[in-house]
Amino acid sequence: MSRFAYVNGQFVRHGEAAVHIEDRGYQLADGVYEVWAVFDGKLVDAEGHFARLWRSLDELRIAHPMSEAALTLVLREAVRRNKVREGLVYLQVTRGVARRDHAFPNPAVPPSVVITAKSIDRAATNAKAEKGGSVISVPENRWGRCDIKSIGLLPNALAKQAARERGAVEAWFVDDMGLVTEGASSNAWIVDAEGTLRTRDTNANILRGVTRSTLLEVIREAGLPISEKPFTIAEAQAAKEAFITGAGSLVTPIVQVDGVKLGDGQAGPVAMKLRRAYIARAREKAV
Fold first, then answer.
1. Where are the extended beta strands (E) located within 8-121?
2. By its UniProt entry, which Pfam families does this protein fall under (predicted)?
3. N- or C-end of the chain: fewer Cβ atoms within 10 A?
4. Domain count for the chain
5. What is the set of active-site residues?
């Protein structure tokens, strides 16, 4: 099946899609991105992703490329053209094309917009989730504005590669205080020895995960104990359960942390319950 990408106002065949060599995203990582999960051909957690997109653009002083209504139409068209029922849609906005200079172009240039969509085998990802995955820890070495969803992801890419080489699904960054911040592409959670769900608060230098935010609502509605309190790798290894959240991972159980098996080494019941609850909510509210 042919794939299509949206590039600066036009849908083109995926294999022919291109941006200018002096696009500031390509040369300076001067841009932001968002990823929506797609359920039943609809956008999941749409409002939260749009809110974070506008905030990231504003923090970097990049102009909004179009209205939310217009962008919604383009995202949906990308999903439709690529015949995605279950999958992901990716949006990238950069400051645009200009002669290479670290300072912003003056006068300003139009931002560049790229959108792609791809299908995911949900049955396969659900089967993987039921088995659980492992994580490794790496030193926190990212810049101090991880709250911005920037395309400058080299530390994340290196962490992901380290995880893959060790057979893990994710890497958790650990700060100078020995506390887990978040994963290379997800938020980190544990169910501690007392049965309390814990994840790092967003006052720390982490991304304000949209899936994380929705899951917090699910947890509170279920009446489960929750604390936005950081944890160490040792606490994670002693936890009853652990899991990660993100638009790609949804809610994925973790069964091993830095080589130490959690509990009986099986996907935890709380994590699996939350995965099912999150997916049910996402399908109901997708637009």
1. 10-13, 31-39, 42-43, 87-94, 112-119
2. Aminotran_4
3. N
4. 2
5. 149
